[in-house]
Amino acid sequence: GAVVSQHPSRVICKSGTSVKIECRSLDFQATTMFWYRQFPKKSLMLMATSNEGSKATYEQGVEKDKFLINHASLTLSTLTVTSAHPEDSSFYICSARSGAGFDTEAFFGQGTRLTVV
Amino acid sequence: GEDVEQSLFLSVREGDSSVINCTYTDSSSTYLYWYKQEPGAGLQLLTYIFSNMDMKQDQRLTVLLNKKDKHLSLRIADTQTGDSAIYFCAETGENNRLAFGKGNQVVVIP
Asked: Would the pLDDT of B92 be above 80?
């Protein structure tokens, strides 16, 4: 299947700093990218849907100014956690789709473990 | 909105069948999916079923959909050690989003 690369896989940052996570589709053009947050023993919580060239659509309860999402090209989306706090520590996963149809498979990155100390 | 629930843990002997269940509440879902997450790995789409189907079989995988009860199940025949993972069901909701259930950990005992 297609490959989605997420970087970094792990990051530790100090409280108050910002962290950028990259999500790249390596062998296809991702018209839509999704960002999820996964809590221990819990499901993936969709944070936002990002379409190339337009502003991301955030889910209710997700702070736009805190979780900045940029989808500048068809192969790259970034999530920046601004002014990180310990409660932002989590596992963040991106997903990319090459089309808009429901049957278009979404490919997932390996995830990023963020620890804020 | 979407609300997907799953049971959490299942242990099964190698060679037996395993069944994972999922309920959802969004009756407007068009597609329902099963994803697999192995330790340290990303999510992998296993199969999906269109909402106007009752059953889909794909090699060792059988998906059953009871739309009336909003119940989705995944049966894995001849379960193998490589099937040990967390399985998520997911559904499409508004705006082509994917909403996921809590995940069901399957442990295969040799």
From this structure: no
